[in-house]
């Protein structure tokens, strides 16, 4: 076990405590640095900084400035890092930082997660680039995942402090007790005999009941999932059942509706090269909302990735093509006069996404049509971007649009007023769209080191429609 120890003390915060104590298998890129455990990282200053605001501000100017850029689950590290890593200055704007830390997260084959941490130097440190990874188990608690993430972020920051010339802010201390040596780490398939042969199984069930004096809803869900992921093959099988019951009092009667839908999905993908993959997909569904008592699809597919697949956490640019038959049996006669039919379909998709120091952006386009009737098609486009325009100013934009002309499953008799008002049945449409636009501007102090959790759950009085 290695411990990072801060070399500043302050009676008003955590600066005098030992910071990181979680056991962890360390990446090879740090092995040379971590071998110097117990040696001070670069002497930075000898004066003792007191707890007064003026001295704290002076201290924040002297420490390396870090901008933390997270997404999704990795944002749970935010507050904990400010508590456990006070030997850097956390800033709220990229332009004030010496180092930009970008975190991304993806799911592993076992159901755990791998967090990739990129360290990108700015200004006079623009040549500095580093990367680390954190692997967590699907059985790890949220606390354990956060501890592992904070621990690894701290090790990367210590390496940066070493190479960037900051002196005396932290040391690496090796444990002298054999009992404290790391006993758990992520291992490769070759290092262990796995009786499950990398297969992972999950059972899930949930229920929800809510209502008011004039309305009640009951939702229950259950699913079974089996998956196996290797560098060459990827398999996934899933069965799910969903039940939704609604009871709504109207002026003259009580409307009741109960629907049970299910689905069976299976796909397999095979790696050809770092850029090419092939696969097959099978799907069977019951969807009353879409007038489909049962639907079967069997779809071979091929995909090309412009960037190597291992780079997908930071950038992805893929093209996919799918073709195959689809059988549908309807609850009610369709607008084309069928109770069942089989049609061949084909689809093309492309996706481009990036997560860089200037922000995040992604765009996705899909197009499909029936092989025997190209006029019956569906084309959709969606985009999402969070862009830092300049200091403190960010643009957030999200949008999607679809041109719809393939609703062959619509019931010939139409839908009732109740089904339309409660959105129980899909309706005919030529298009769908959505758009969000936002600007945020932040100014004031550049420092962002303090965590204060007081009154965070307080919402005030009732009467707000809750």
Summarize the structure.
The protein is mainly β and 466 residues long. The protein has helices at residues 31-34, 53-62, 77-84, 142-164, 417-421, and strands at residues 2-6, 18-20, 40-42, 65-69, 89-90, 99-107, 113-121, 129-136, 168-174, 199-212, 215-229, 233-249, 254-271, 276-287, 292-305, 315-330, 340-356, 359-370, 373-390, 393-404, 431-441. The protein has two domains: 2-180, Rossmann fold (3-Layer(aba) Sandwich), CATH 3.40.50; 189-441, Porin, CATH 2.40.160.
Keywords:
2 domains; twelve-stranded antiparallel β-sheet; mainly beta; 466 residues; globular; five-stranded mixed β-sheet
User: What is the percentage of strand-forming residues?
Assistant: over 45%
Strand order of the largest sheet: 10-11-12-13-14-15-16-17-18-19-20-21
Give the name of the CATH architecture of the largest domain: Beta Barrel
CATH class call of the largest domain: Mainly Beta
| Separation of the first and last Cα atoms | 49 Å
How would the blueprint of this fold be written?
Layout: E1 2-6, E2 18-20, H1 31-34, E3 40-42, H2 53-62, E4 65-69, H3 77-84, E5 89-90, E6 99-107, E7 113-121, E8 129-136, H4 142-164, E9 168-174, E10 199-212, E11 215-229, E12 233-249, E13 254-271, E14 276-287, E15 292-305, E16 315-330, E17 340-356, E18 359-370, E19 373-390, E20 393-404, H5 417-421, E21 431-441
